[in-house]
Amino acid sequence: MARSIYTKLTGRHRSLFGFSQLWLAPDHVMLLQSSRFTEQYKRFALSDIQSIVVTELPPRAVAQAVIILAALAWMGLWFTVDSRFAKWVIEISGTLALLIAIVDIARGQRCRCVLHTRVSREPLEPVSRMRIARRFLAEIRPRIEALQGVLPPTLEPFPLEPFAPEAPPPETPSSPGYLPEIVFGLFLANALMIWALMRFPQAADLSGVLLTTMFAELLLIATAFLRRKGRDGRVIVYAVMALGILGIAYGFYEVARELVGWYMTVLEKARNNDHSITPVTIFTNPNRAQAIAVAWRAIAGVIGLGAAFYERRSKWPR
Amino acid sequence: MPANAIACAVCSIPVPAENWNREESSRCPGCGLEIRALVFPAILHNRSGESAAALQGESEASCFYHPQSRAAQICQDCGRFLCNLCDLEVGGRHICPRCFDKTDDLETSRPMYDTMALALATLPVLLFWPAFVAAPWALTMVIRRWNTPLSLVPRTKFRFILAALFALAEIGFGIFIIYMITQVSLKGPRR
Q1: Domain assignments of chain A as residue spans, ordered by start
Q2: CB B5 within 8 A of CB A163
Q3: Is A55 within 8 Å of chain B by CB?
Q4: Where exactly are the structural domains of chain B?
Q5: Any idea which fold A7-57+109-148 has?
Q6: Which of B57, B124, B152, B34 is nearest to A43 (CA)?
Q7: A with B: how many residue pairs have Cβ under 8 Å apart?
Q8: Contact residues, chain B, for A27 at CB < 8 Å
Q9: Read out DSSP for B123-164?
Q10: pTM of this prediction?
């Protein structure tokens, strides 16, 4: 395997869904942005860098002090609660809040760093603290000056204009993934399983599988809508998915109702010292509303798959 | 052509030239925050691209992509004639737009198959049943993608190894469960 040409310039700047980091190659700086499952790379040739600006952000001493005092006050609730579980929850959450505030103070003053080239103005998120900024500038300045030289100290004034970003290049059309097709397939599979449970109540094991697949359905729908922007230009498919949510919502209502019923049955048995097992069963008492919800799901699945196929062929012909 | 203003990272007010390249920080005239601006000679070089020249006669070579434009360069990858518009200078080499698209050196993104395999081998366990499908899938991904280049930056195969171990453990557990179920069905429940 080829050896990487990159050396680390900064540590990882973590966010909720990934991290960003700066790496240095012999002739360029690379900004790596990771979403865990993919990495995006932006390269800035050292010969193209016009300037690097680091601005210190205002200190947050007041906010940090408030957080520390609030955490200590929260932890003081230890003396007022009797429950052991509550004591542990209070202490763990208070300690976490205290640690976050202490680590924030220890990491030093925050800053914002921007790299300017002829055509871009890129915020460098990994350079988020003054300590990191000093190390970063000390590392990169000699490299840039080795390539470009130094700006003469006595410079004739030359005209500067406010930064106006270049128009973005035209997007390369690429076909979307198959997530909506998987969602509609799952609609059909779940509709089939619900119908099977309604028709054959003795197949109670299907309830366990159905609980999992219905949860997966919800997760995939949320993911499909969240990922849609910039990736999938189809409209009908997502409209059908949104309408299908109506049938799904009723399904979840039924499941929640039956799970609560099961829980109450178990509680009642426990009170009466009854040790018999009460299996979880769902969709075993068919009614018209359930039948409509199943049909809605199945129809949404069929129409969705057809629409997905049609829109894929029309928008991204091979 | 005027250069772009060097602006504060917070308020975007231009940094005055007397505050450029100072060893100590200065104050931003807009927001009053401490600011440090390093400016390099590239700010003086505002090169703009050349437009394609028209063909003057039939004996002149024309661009492969623009037959009405005069060829100014040859693509150093595929050998096609290029006009000034199509000539892309990358790392000192002149290449055409089609060869530019195929260049590995300018990859802008890569999938992280090791993280995907590890997620497949671990997350479905939370829902139990999907692990029986996801574990073999994770193992297949580890085997198929073992030699696929991962990140551009140094990265070990630790996640692949961890994914394979988890997947094997789940597959082994699945086989054990199937074995126990078949044993119970053959022998009948204990009385």
Answers
A1: 7-57+109-148, 61-106, 179-315
A2: yes
A3: yes
A4: 1-48, 49-105, 113-186
A5: PH-domain like (2.30.29)
A6: B152
A7: 166
A8: 91
A9: GGGGGSTTHHHHHHHHHHHHHHHTTS---SS---SHHHHHHH
A10: 0.67
- pLDDT tens for each residue of B113-135: 999 999 999 998 888 888 888 99
Q: Give A199's pLDDT tier (boundaries 50, 70, 90).
A: confident
**Phi/psi of residue A116, nearest 5 degrees:** -110, 135
Whether ipTM > 0.95 holds is no
The C-alpha of A174 sits at a distance from chain B's nearest C-alpha, in angstroms, of: 14
Can you give the pLDDT at residue A215?
Answer: 86
CB A91, CB A75: distance < 8 Å: yes
Burial of B4 (0-12, 13-18, 19+ CB in 10 A): buried
Task: Report the C-alpha gap between B89 and A119 in whole angstroms.
Answer: 16
Contact B29, B7 (CB under 8 A): no
* Residue to test with chain A: of B1, B13, B43, most A Cβ within 10 A: B43
Task: Please tell me the predicted confidence (pLDDT) of residue A273.
Answer: 87
Within 8 A by CB and 6+ apart from A315, the residues are A233, A234
